Amino acid sequence: MPPTYDSVSFPTDAIFANGAVSGGPTFITQVASAGSGIEQRNGRTGAHARRYFTLDTGTVNDATRNAVVGFFIERRGRSDSFRFKDPFDHTASGAPIVSGQLVKRYTAGGVTYDRPITKPINGTVTFSGGGTLNYETGVITSGAGGTWSGQFEIQARFGSDRYLERNYFIDWHNVSVSIIETFDSAIPATSSTVPGDVLSYSFTLPIEVGRERYADYSTYLWTGSPYAEDRSAQYAVGLVGFGGNVLCSDRTDLETLLSIFLCARGRRSGFQYEAFNVRFGRDDLMLGYTGNESFQAPMSFVGLV
Known about the structure:
The protein has helices at 12-15, 62-74, 251-263; strands spanning 4-9, 21-26, 29-33, 39-43, 50-56, 80-84, 91-98, 101-108, 111-116, 119-120, 126-127, 132-134, 139-141, 146-158, 164-169, 172-181, 198-202, 207-216, 220-223, 229-232, 239-248, 270-273, 276-280, 288-291, 294-303. The mean pLDDT is 89. The protein is 10% helix and 50% strand. It is mainly beta. The longest helix is centred in the first third of the chain and has 13 residues, at 62-74. The strands form five sheets. Strands 1, 2, 5, 6, 7, 8, 9, 10, 11, 14, 15 and 16 form a twelve-stranded mixed β-sheet that branches. Strands 17, 18, 21, 22, 23, 24 and 25 form a seven-stranded mixed β-sheet that branches. The protein has a domain at 195-305.
């Protein structure tokens, strides 16, 4: 028996209440490092990013609390999947239709990442080329292709069979749940550029809050008898890396950050930052609101040989 999917949307009032959701896309990359600092990085071929979120509603009223708890009970915890609106990435404009499939295309340094959109939101989508759109698969039949614009959701499930609720005062609640993107069937294949080891792309968004910069020479030391020492530096210039929080002042900046992360496939491919070759230090992008449609993400950039 296939998993149960309910074509209902998670309460949007809870998603956008007080910037309650944090999280984002995640890849899986295997990284093997040699003593010289040279890396071999392997990502699963053709694998799409999967999105993980933590929702902490902060303080919400009875109506929002009841909507979230009721929705959780109706889905029987992790049992049934549902529609979920990613607060960080839910719109497309002039995006391509690839072999009848709605796609959102992300671009960075000549590399593209085509993300199949399987849960468009009815009433928000316009498309060229004619045909009939299935709002549960994102597939257009009897159409000639073209472009589309609109909003979309993802298919998701709860990450646990239990939720946490705190009551502070009357009509003042906090509910915490985890939400995971789920694929109950095979994801449609779409054409994307295969990234190289280092993309020709310069990252320009600011790393400001708690910014760190380091240089690593990875010097080998040999100690002789009784006091002789030999030293061998592995790099003529140090591997330079960075850390801190990437700040996005608006949704245009946020789209830029999402594009380089998805095109690089997380840790899979490097890029340039301040004239140094670096890669993301993590395979997951943990986005959060900072208020007034601005966003930030804790970030580390690992230096590359």
